[in-house]
């Protein structure tokens, strides 16, 4: 599970980055919101949702999450990170991607679809990178490999 979760991280991050770059190109280049744009943004959304499900399973089986009670975990920055901060920040990021995708889906004009993806997915990337930089494992570190 840790290995799968570790690998899906790359799909979520690179998917979001490419979605943002293409949506910026669409927004500022006044391009039509193409089928390709939609598929890419959807694949990014789905990877984030799968990451949520795998993360939740991992949460219940992870030795580091279950090493201490909430009260004890609060006093240790590593235990607190995995018990509380990682999950909370990542859920916020996944919610941002989900809101962005559904708002973009409901928007009528192409430029608005592109702009919504660009803004919400960028915010999600910032939260994910911030969370991973707090993890002590680096942005691309893999202990689960
Ligand atoms: C705990 C698990 C999950 C939760 C809480 C969740 C929640 C959501 C929510 C709130 C939406 C937005 C609905 C909307 O506003 O249109 C959504 C959309 C979606 N989710 Fe999930 N999801 C979960 C797991 C998954 C999984 C495992 C997959 C795929 C393997 C998935 C695929 C999708 C797709 C494809 C959409 C977008 C459909 C569309 O609007 O075109 N989700 N999900
Ligand atoms: C965008 C979403 C997420 C990303 C990018 C992400 C990324 C990561 C990364 C990179 C690791 C370390 C992997 C390794 O050491 O090889 C990790 C571990 C973990 N993640 Fe996530 N995660 C996300 C969402 C979540 C969510 C929503 C949860 C819980 C509901 C969660 C729970 C965990 C747990 C329990 C661990 C393992 C700690 C351990 O036993 O070492 N993650 N995650």
Give your account of this protein's structure:
This protein is mainly α and 145 residues long. Helix content is 77%, strand content 0%. It is built from 5 helices and no strands. Helix 4 (77-106) packs antiparallel against helix 5. The longest helix has 30 residues, at 77-106. It is elongated, with a radius of gyration of 17 Å. It starts with a helix and ends in a 12-residue tail after the last helix. The structure holds protoporphyrin IX containing FE (2 copies). The site of one protoporphyrin IX containing FE has 9 residues, from helix 2 and helix 4.
Strand and helix layout:
Elements: H1 2-28, H2 35-61, H3 70-73, H4 77-106, H5 110-133
Helix pairs in contact: 1-2, 1-5, 2-4, 4-5
The structure holds protoporphyrin IX containing FE (2 copies).
Residues 2, 5-6, 9, 12, 48, 51-52, 55-56, 58-59, 62-65, 82, 86-87, 90-91, 93-94, 128, 132, 137, 142-144 line the site of one protoporphyrin IX containing FE.
Structural class: mainly alpha
Largest sheet: none
Bound molecules: protoporphyrin IX containing FE
- Low-pLDDT residue intervals, each spanning 5 or more residues: none
Helix % is over 70%
Number of strands: 0
Strand content: under 5%
Continuous helix count: 5
- The ordered string of helix (H) and strand (E) elements is HHHHH
Could you report the average pLDDT, rounded to the nearest whole number?
Answer: 97
- Write down the overall geometry: elongated
From the N-terminal CA to the C-terminal CA, the straight-line distance is 10 Å
User: How big is the Rg?
Assistant: 17 Å
